[in-house]
Amino acid sequence: QVQLQESGPGLVKPSQNLSLTCTVSGGSISSGGYFWNWIRRPAGKGLEWIGRIYTSGSTNYNPSLKSRVTISVDTSKNQFSLKVTSVSAADTAVYYCARGRSIAAHFDHWGQGSLVTVSS
Amino acid sequence: QSVLTQPPSVSGAPGQRVTISCTGSSSNIGTGYDVHWYQQLPGTAPKLLIYGNNNRPSGVPDRFSGSKSGTSASLAITGLQADDEADYYCQSYDNSLSGSVVFGGGTKLTVL
Fold first, then answer.
1. By C-alpha distance, which of A57, A93, A104, A10 is closest to B31?
2. pLDDT digit string (tens) for B32-61?
3. How far is CA A59 from the centre of its chain?
4. Do A61 and B98 touch (CB under 8 A)?
5. Which residues of A touch B102 (CB under 8 A)?
6. For residue range A58-116, what is the model confidence (pLDDT) as tens digits?
7. For the residues of B14-70, what is the DSSP string, one character each?
8. A vs B: CB pairs below 8 A
């Protein structure tokens, strides 16, 4: 059974960079042709898709965040990562990593979520 | 403002049937892209409830069902139970937003 687990700092200062890693266990991140996604839920708001990466390294991002977001993959560690630059309080959210079977498919496995607070 | 529109809240008494709508446009649901539904209980990750418009993953009770028509989709819950109280989200794909996944704003279901 595939499991995903987010990790990273829970507190980031405004204007700094946010970095999170998702570790995949129970299966290889390189097999199966899956897409690996980041999704967030700000407090009091709904889910927002951030972006995805394929194991080839190709990426797609939410146009509203594209200028500040980078997603990368490290197949040797079975991990993929998220970096958001120049964060503000609006980036405070629970961040989830999730697996999708195609670009338009559902997310069948999710991490438990990682709360990131942007505050000085 | 979300690309997919859901009612902010719905409510029903135990045993009743409720529906949650998800309205999109010609660049997402109306083009034929599938709609998926998630249930999110407080403090937990979203759980896949319906995929591909009307398919239930293993373990999801048949009290939950999905449908799609035109530019809209619906989630129906019958035999409402207290532990159905949660936030529900629809999800689809939009071909006008650089290959973006889009979510509805979410619907809070209250069991009276």
1. A104
2. 999 999 999 999 999 999 999 999 999 999
3. 12
4. yes
5. 49
6. 999 999 999 999 999 999 999 999 999 999 999 999 999 999 988 888 999 999 999 99
7. TT--EEEEEE--TTTGGGT---EEEEE-TTS--EEEEBTTTBPPTT--TTEEEEEET
8. 67
Tokens linked to B78: 């019958």
Contact A106 B52 (CB under 8 A): yes
3-state SS assignment for residue A112: coil
Residue A102: name the closest of B27, B92, B43, B64 by CA: B92
Tell me the two tokens of residue B24: 């999109």
Instruction: Name the residue among A104, A107, A113 with its Cβ closest to that of B48.
Output: A107
Chain B residues in contact with A111 by the CB 8 A cut-off are 45
Among candidates A110, A90, A86, which has minimal Cα distance to A36? A110
Q: What angle do CA A81, A82, A88 make, to 5 degrees?
A: 155
Measured at the alpha carbon of residue B89, what is the angle toward residues B88 and B90, in degrees to the nearest 5? 135
User: Using an 8 Å Cβ cutoff, are B88 and B35 in contact?
Assistant: no
Residue to substitute from B75, B94, B101, interface A, most A β-carbons within 10 A = B101
Interchain proximity B91–A48, CB inside 8 Å = no
* B36: contact with A, CB 8 A cutoff: yes
- What's the one-letter identity of residue B59? G
**CA-nearest residue of chain A to B108?**
A46
CA distance A34 to B55: 20
